[in-house]
Design a protein that fits this description.
The radius of gyration is 21 Å and the shape is globular. The strands form 5 sheets. An 8-stranded mixed β-sheet has the order 5-6-4-14-15-16-13-19. Helix 2 crosses helix 11. It contains 11 helices and 21 strands. It is an alpha/beta fold. It has 2 domains: 23-103 and 157-434, FAD/NAD(P)-binding domain, CATH 3.50.50.60; 104-156, no CATH class.
């Protein structure tokens, strides 16, 4: 498996889709695949439609961290469950997921960072995590460097996995359990009758279904808005690089404000900017400015603004907001959202790495890519049924946190679809928070 997944990746799930199902899932990323997993285990007839390739977008382009550390407190119970599911999956699939408990480390550049880490420790203690603060000496003993870090936050039980391998491997097993997965099959529209969802219209025809899950990542808001459902979701471009094989000086995941690293199964390291991302200004930037204003005021120092998204992107100026279910949709016109990485940022990453670890120097780069991270104004997802459209459940806006928590979200969404109690407090993730007067602001996540 190469990384990330692109249109050059062979189709593994060719279809065709059946004419009916209990549940149709829109989107073949980690959320869609894991939702399908739990629905299938519960005996539901599931069809998952992916416009391009399974895990072709952010689910194969992320850092590959499986972390409890630093999460929004409302996510923590689901994340704790998610890690238990990861452990079960790893027991089933062996090394096929690349799952390893190797820890997550946040390093501090200054006293302000340490104060933020110390404040988050109250959430770690509340959930019984093994997270602990490190002073400069303890950090240097754990990860020696020349970066001048003053301390850190360390969770030894956190983990890593290989995104481009894990999600497709789980999808293959899912197909073996009876779910129908269809790549190169865009869902153009919901089929609605009597005010409720009765199925979907795909490029391959209609699928009748009483329940539909929208897990379309960066495309979710575009799809939802065409059906009158407002999602204040925007997307940012994040650049990632993979080094050539290097000596294992660190087995897990680590990050400061400037760069992040993760050991990979192939002997290299994934490199990424710590807080840097790029935002393309499109129509939704103006439409959702009020919702995002608290986040903008809090900190936009790591954001570079670009004038317009390339043609065909979800919020490009020329992307249609309305289309016919009988004709080609924006989802077919761009099978995989495959943004170009920022080459200059990759060179800066190499420099930062070399300054922190001079004995290793500037690492060679084996590959580089970028992904579009779907984010919400309060940096937590929407996980909810849609009251205005019975039969539709939305799971989107993972805000860069979706890979690790994906198995837990999938279990929760499956239970929502089946009318079961989800087992967690989902009030922070409700869709209505954007319309019921709730104060929208990022929580105490790191």
């Amino acid at each position: 498996m190469t990384f990330p997944i692109t249109l050059a990746t062979p189709v593994r799930h060719a279809g065709p889709p059946p004419s009916e199902a209990d549940v149709v899932i829109i989107g073949g990323g980690v959320i869609g695949v894991m939702t399908a997993w739990f629905l299938t285990l519960a005996g539901r007839k599931v069809v998952l439609c992916e416009k391009g390739r399974i895990a072709g977008e952010q689910s194969s382009r992320n850092w590959g961290w499986v972390r409890k550390q630093g999460r929004d407190p409302a996510e923590l119970p689901i994340m704790i469950e998610a890690q238990a599911i990861w452990e079960d999956l790893a027991a089933q699939f062996g090394d096929g997921l690349g799952y390893r408990r190797t820890g997550v480390l946040y390093t501090a550049n200054n006293a302000r960072d340490m104060a933020e880490y110390e404040a988050w420790m109250s959430h770690a203690r509340a959930h019984g995590l093994d997270t602990r603060l490190l002073d400069a000496a303890a950090l240097d003993a754990l990860l020696p460097s020349k970066a001048g870090w003053v301390g850190g936050l360390w969770t030894a039980s956190d983990a890593r996995a290989e995104p481009w391998a894990a999600v497709p491997r789980i999808a293959e097993a899912l197909a073996g359990k009876g779910a129908v997965l269809v790549e190169n099959c865009a869902v153009r529209a919901l089929d609605i009758a009597g005010g409720r969802v009765t199925g979907v219209m795909t490029e391959a025809g209609r699928i009748a279904a009483g329940q539909v899950v929208l897990a379309g990542g960066a495309w979710s808001a575009l799809f939802a808005r065409a059906h009158g459902v407002g999602l204040p979701q925007l997307s940012v471009r994040a650049t990632v690089a993979a080094t050539v094989p290097l000596p294992e000086f660190w087995p897990g995941c680590a990050a400061d404000g400037e760069f992040a690293i993760r050991r990979r199964a192939d002997g290299g390291y994934t490199l990424a900017p710590g807080h840097f991302h790029e935002f393309f200004i499109g129509p939704d930037a103006f439409r959702h400015l009020r919702a995002f204003w608290p986040q903008i005021r809090a900190d936009i120092s790591g954001t570079r603004f670009l004038p317009a998204a390339p043609r065909g992107y979800p919020d490009a100026w020329g992307t249609p907001r309305r289309w016919s279910a009988e004709g080609q949709s924006p989802f077919e016109r761009m099978r995989i959202l495959n943004p170009a990485p920022n080459a200059a940022e990759i060179e800066r990453l190499r420099d930062r790495f070399a300054r922190a670890f001079p004995a290793l120097g500037r690492p060679g780069i084996a590959a580089a890519w970028a992904g579009m991270i779907d984010t919400m104004p309060d940096v937590v997802p929407v996980i909810d049924t849609v009251a205005a459209l019975p039969g539709l459940t939305v799971a989107t806006g993972m805000s860069g946190h979706g890979f690790g928590i994906g198995p837990g979200i999938g279990r929760v969404v499956a239970d929502l679809v089946m009318g079961r109690a989800p087992g967690h407090d989902l009030s922070r993730f409700r869709l209505s928070r954007f319309s019921d007067g709730t104060r929208i602001a990022p929580g105490p996540a790191l």
